[in-house]
Amino acid sequence: MTHHPLFSVSTFLAVLLSTLLLFTVIGASTAQAASAREIDIKVNDALKRFKKEVGGASEFLGTAKGMLVFPEVIKAGIGIGGEYGEGALLIGGKTVDYYNTAAASIGFQLGAQMKTVIIVFLQKSALDKFRKSDGWEAGVDGSVALATLGVGASIDSTSLNKPIVGFVFGNKGLMYNLTFEGSKYTRLNK
After folding, report:
1. What gap in Å lies between CA 124 and CA 109, rounded to an integer?
2. Are the C-beta atoms of 86 and 31 separated by less than 8 Å?
3. Is pLDDT at 123 greater than 70 in this prediction?
4. For residues 73 and 80, what is the distance between their CA atoms, to the nearest angstrom?
5. φ, ψ of residue 52 in degrees (nearest 5)
């Protein structure tokens, strides 16, 4: 019996362990699904933080046709990764639906992190298409432009002329060099 040099029992065990860890982290998140009230409280806190940290955020959000806010998206992985979070779709400042976001990835990754995601619909047609979908996937069903900020961490509204704009925050503020591609958003029954 010959052994392939790139595959060994230890490689198999590492992949198996990473997969089990990933499903444990993601499974724990879904098993402890938040109530509508808990989500609303966290969404409000995330929006307050966004408005406090980013100049022009209140005015910008005032022009939105709707916004999808995920206050806690947990990403974890060891080689194989995934992320999950629950949030709310707000129209006119009021929650109209609850959603989850999920994504999977393969590649070099180790550890876990939590981030806040805010997706702003600037065109009613984009919002309507999102709401009519039965599981909307970024990059397939619509494109989400990752927002960048100008000097002094303020929104430059002239550069935000896309139908859908997304913001991602970590513990240290707005995060860059990320993508929304492959993230799936599904309506929840809350």
Report:
1. 37
2. no
3. yes
4. 17
5. -75, -40
